[in-house]
């Protein structure tokens, strides 16, 4: 595996509805993308956090793929576009089909709808993005190949 082939993919939904009927603001999209990018790291930190004398300590082993291929390399992130909620759900299903695990390899990002987004029908939140942990692009290609770059 070449280190420069390690990338973090994020799939962001395009059709989310807002309370005003206007397109989702650039600020909100940036925040949701940030959530999707950081979700894997936050999960690792929570999983490996201990409380010692009222202070949190985090210690974990990081794979060579993550450390050398991404964190100390190009730190590449690719933002892809899902046309709608159904496409976002298909991406999550495909990720599971190829053996990726939710909460470890990918993270479903849901907005609480406290500001501009409207909850999905029958839900209290808006499923807006999927953030994948950084991994070899070949491993995730079956999921990402059907999605275009976000424009």
Features:
single chain; 151 residues; Bit1; two-stranded antiparallel ribbon; 8 strands; globular
Task: Tell me what the structure shows.
The protein has four helices and eight strands; from the N terminus they run E-H-E-E-H-E-H-E-E-E-H-E. The mean pLDDT is 91. The chain has a single domain (3-149), classed as Bit1. By secondary structure, it is of the alpha+beta class. Strands 1, 4, 5, 6, 7 and 8 form a six-stranded mixed beta sheet that branches. A two-stranded antiparallel sheet has the order 2-3. Strand 2 (49-52) and strand 3 (55-58) form a beta hairpin. Helices cover 34% and strands 26% of the residues. Helix 3 (85-97) packs across helix 4 (137-144).
Please provide a brief summary of the model.
With 151 residues, this protein is an alpha+beta fold. Helices cover 34% and strands 26% of the residues.
List the helices and strands and how they pair.
Elements: E1 6-13, H1 26-47, E2 49-52, E3 55-58, H2 64-71, E4 77-82, H3 85-97, E5 106-111, E6 126-132, E7 135-136, H4 137-144, E8 148-149
Parallel strand pairs: 1-4
Antiparallel strand pairs: 1-6, 1-7, 2-3, 4-8, 5-6
Helix pairs in contact: 3-4
How many distinct beta strands? Answer: 8
CATH class: Alpha Beta
What proportion of the residues is helical, as a percent range? Answer: 25-40%
Secondary-structure-derived class: alpha+beta
- Rg, please? 16 Å
Distance between the termini: 29 Å
**Helix-strand topology string:** EHEEHEHEEEHE
Report the mean per-residue pLDDT as an integer: 91
Strand content: 25-35%
Second-tier CATH architecture: 3-Layer(aba) Sandwich
At the fold tier of CATH, the topology name is Bit1
Uncertain runs: none
Task: Specify the oligomeric state.
Answer: single chain
CATH superfamily: Bit1
What is the global morphology?
globular
